[in-house]
Design brief:
single chain, mainly alpha, 3 helices, 77% helix, 0% strand, elongated
């Protein structure tokens, strides 16, 4: 493995770990939101246990945040809030 290939591999691994951290932090905030402030009623989701509904909605919201490029913004907000 060349140094360039190794460097690219390490950079990709670091990027993946950072992205996972962002997903976890923002995902926890979204789950807290659904548990404390917003009623969840979806069809056919309403038939699933509440925890599964929240997990599904959290995944969908995280994907949207990633796709529209606002995951970094919400990650920073979540980190600021946890510091207070």
């Amino acid at each position: 493995m060349t140094d360039n290939t190794l460097g690219e591999s390490l950079a990709q691994e670091l990027y993946t770990r950072i992205l996972i951290e962002k997903f976890q932090v923002v995902g926890e905030k979204i789950e807290d939101y659904y548990l404390t402030t917003k009623p969840i009623i979806d069809i056919p989701e309403f038939m699933k246990p509440l925890t599964e509904q929240i997990a599904y909605k959290t995944r969908i919201q995280l994907i949207k945040l990633y796709q529209n490029g606002t995951l970094d913004y919400w990650y920073k907000k979540a980190m600021e809030e946890s510091e207070v």
